[in-house]
Amino acid sequence: MKKEAFLTKKQIEEIVGTYPTPFHIYDERGIRENAKALREAFAWNKGYKEFFAVKATPNPFLINILREYGCGCDCSSYTELMLCDAMGLEGKDIMFSSNDTPAAEFELAAKLGATINLDDITHISFLEKILGRLPETLSCRFNPGGYFSLGTDIMDNPGDAKYGFTTEQMFEGFRILKEKGVKNFGIHAFLASNTVTNEYYPTLARQLFELAVKLRDETGAHITFINLSGGIGIPYRPDQTPNDIRVIGESVRKVYEEVLTPAGMGDIAIYTELGRFMMGPYGALVTKVIHQKHTYKEYVGVDACAVNLMRPAMYGAYHHITVLGKEDAPCDHLYDVTGSLCENNDKFAIDRMLPEIEIGDYIVIHDTGAHGYAMGYNYNGKLKSAELLLREDGSVELIRRAETPKDYFATFDCFEIFDRLTGEGRADK
Ligand SMILES: *Cc1c(COP(=O)(O)O)cnc(C)c1O
């Protein structure tokens, strides 16, 4: 499939008059259409709810769009919980799926009335100690170990992952929780990441549904929801076929009716915690070519760097690139597209065939809507970019300003050097 940017060169030339590159820009129309399709795909399940994984794109303006489609939020840290609270989410709309959890985070999650998803059997007593008594509703994260395969394809390696209860611990954990008075139980698992196949959710669902029946039979626990979590991926590469969420929803329904309904468990709610699937394709990093370098390779230097998008440097992840205005030009030049960090892995593309590039060209780096801006950092003293929203009517709105040096130096604001760095008085004076 040809990957096309959701912006034209003409639009970008207008936007940069107000908001200089680099920036992340999000496509409201795409976000809405996808959220609607997800809701429809699972409409067969009465209690269905998507808890958007806040860590993917922690921007309240974007999350508020998803909330119009019935989405809640999945948090895994103190500040993510704070954000949801400030946005006015109710406890029932917050899932707290964390691991290695500090006491203060459990405390805040409980205070907000969030549904807590325990990552480990030892967290039962940890949580009880913090709260005095356990909440009425609790969920446990399951890790079956071994490899997660679809047919002959190994998708991921849960046996090597730090998350979740073992199978035995699920049974023991449910027994303990039941003794301690927990009334409603949930089961959660996240066994493969960025799956670009319609088979992941139904396969995972069968595993969890069968486990749910056994857990109910052996412990008597009242299971009220099953959380399929994240992991539905997006086609970062043009040769990949996108997931069809309608097919996925329908396949999960079939498994549900095969396993849960006959077991008298046809009232279980299905939850999801999708991040990448909700936002990934609907964000782009826009950057300008500022240098070209001809040494042992041909380098294109842009004004964004790995602090704006870490995935290529961190995982060698592929992000498709469009050179604006050259969409139909032949890709007959071989380039490395680099940022300016003093790190040789600061490359958005290595040995990529692209149209002939000139200084001043605008480049769109695709699929940065999830785990893009959010993973940003400040290495080399580089500042984080702005986030913009391309509205359905074509207008552009600033939804997070770019960092300034003052933001970068803010944690020196109790020291004298702050005055010289910023020309302003210290906060404590
Ligand atoms: C990261 C994460 C998600 C979202 O994962 P995606 O791959 O973005 O869908 C959901 N749940 C938990 C607990 C996570 O850590």
Q: How would you describe this protein?
A:
The protein is 29% helix and 22% strand. It has 2 domains: 26-279, TIM Barrel; 281-410, Lyase, Ornithine Decarboxylase, Chain A, domain 1 (Beta Barrel), CATH 2.40.37.10. It has 13 helices and 19 strands. With 429 residues, the chain is α/β, with parallel strands linked by helices. Strand 3, helix 4 and strand 4 (94-97) form a beta-alpha-beta unit. It has helices spanning 9-15, 28-41, 60-67, 78-86, 103-112, 123-131, 167-179, 200-219, 245-259, 276-279, 311-315, 405-408, 417-422, and strands spanning 23-27, 49-53, 72-75, 94-97, 115-118, 137-141, 148-150, 153-156, 184-188, 223-227, 269-272, 283-294, 298-302, 321-323, 333-338, 347-354, 362-365, 386-390, 396-400. Strands 1, 12, 13, 14, 15, 16, 17, 18 and 19 form a 9-stranded mixed sheet that branches. An 8-stranded parallel β-barrel has the order 2-3-4-5-6-9-10-11, surrounded by 5 helices. The mean pLDDT is 97. Helix 4 packs parallel to helix 5 (103-112) and helix 8 packs parallel to helix 9. It starts with 8 loop residues before the first helix and ends in a 7-residue tail after the last helix. It is globular, with a radius of gyration of 23 Å. Bound molecules: pyridoxal-5'-phosphate.
What's the arrangement of secondary structure elements?
Blueprint (H helix, E strand, L loop, with lengths): L8 H7 L7 E5 H14 L7 E5 L6 H8 L4 E4 L2 H9 L7 E4 L5 H10 L2 E4 L4 H9 L5 E5 L6 E3 L2 E4 L10 H13 L4 E5 L11 H20 L3 E5 L17 H15 L9 E4 L3 H4 L3 E12 L3 E5 L8 H5 L5 E3 L9 E6 L8 E8 L7 E4 L20 E5 L5 E5 L4 H4 L8 H6 L7
This protein binds pyridoxal-5'-phosphate.
